[in-house]
Amino acid sequence: MTVIQRLSGNSSLKALGGFAIAAVVLFVLAPAVLSDFRLSLLAKFLCFAIVAVGIGLAWGRGGMLTLGQGVFFGIGAYIMAMHMQMADAAKAHEDVPEFMVIAGVPELPSYWQPFASAPVAILGILVLPAAIAAVLGFGVFKRRVKGAYFAILSQALAAALAILLTGQQTIGGFTGLSDFRSFFGFRLDDPVNRRMLFFIAAATLLIVVAVARQLMRSRYGELLVAVRDQEERVRFLGYDPANIKIVAYVVAAFFAGIAGALFTPIVGIISPADIGVVPSIAFLIGVAIGGRTTLLGPVLGAVGVAWAQTTFSENFPSAWTYFQGALFIVVVGFIPAGLAGFGPMARQLLERVRPGKGAPVEAPAAPVESAETTEVVEEQSAEVEEKVEA
What we know:
Blueprint: H1 3-9, H2 11-33, H3 36-61, H4 69-91, H5 98-103, H6 118-141, H7 148-166, E1 177-178, E2 182-183, E3 186-187, H8 191-217, H9 219-229, H10 231-236, H11 241-267, E4 269-270, H12 277-290, H13 297-315, H14 320-334, H15 342-353, H16 371-389
Antiparallel strand pairs: 1-4, 2-3
């Protein structure tokens, strides 16, 4: 076996090489090739990719169709926006942000005041989305709500939050919060600081992907797939599937909250239109098109769909929505593995038509359980049998 073959067979080295290539593309190639405007646009897409990684973990590995990630994205985004508004007001020696003065709000609402502190705002971004997801997940999964019912419930939460924010004038109402001047003391109109926001988003995405990969390859990741494929069997082996689902749901919410917090200074505005039902479905479409069961599929799908929407909507503003919907239907109906599944499909096709390999062997019927599920269940069944014999 050659050295190259050994290196290619080592998954850890392959992953390290993949991260190195991604780092070169994001930190060297993209800033050198793209203009400041396009780089800022890519930073926005990277925020969507961070949300997509969490959806890939919860939906692709756990089977939870999360149609309400806009809720957690919005919580992180609005907390960051509130802190930035109060920081700008403090620099201008004002008691309330400028939009409150225009709206006739004389005093700062009580729920705004804690987020005037930068550490409290960061803590809120990291903790609140995850805590709310834990409470929701406990109430939903402990009652064994799943499938379409869970999808409808999560979508209803996103719609309810958007409607609630629309009616709150103290938080910007329908127009949301905008006109931010600084980000933790750094001026947002400085091109250098704008590039720094891109680097922060890129570094965050790489960290999030690394965390998701570790979870997928861990014992917990195997249990998550087992719950997706054979929930009742996992329950019989002594595990509580609800707890396994809650962890994935909380991690996905945690990622979405961070993405929302980065989205606010990068884009410069956050409104109910950015966190409602439509954005939540757009997150899901990117994951489905990229390949929900893979690690990089959701990232590439989210960035690709967002880029295509920005590019094609400029030339075909009325037709892009129909094209996006048709692409989603085709992928879900005919290519369940997404665009990431084209590689394995092409390899299998080449192996079948390659000369000297003999007649192609018919593929066996798709098993009900995945290989990961079978391995976990067999190991746990052996443990149960040993305990019974003892």
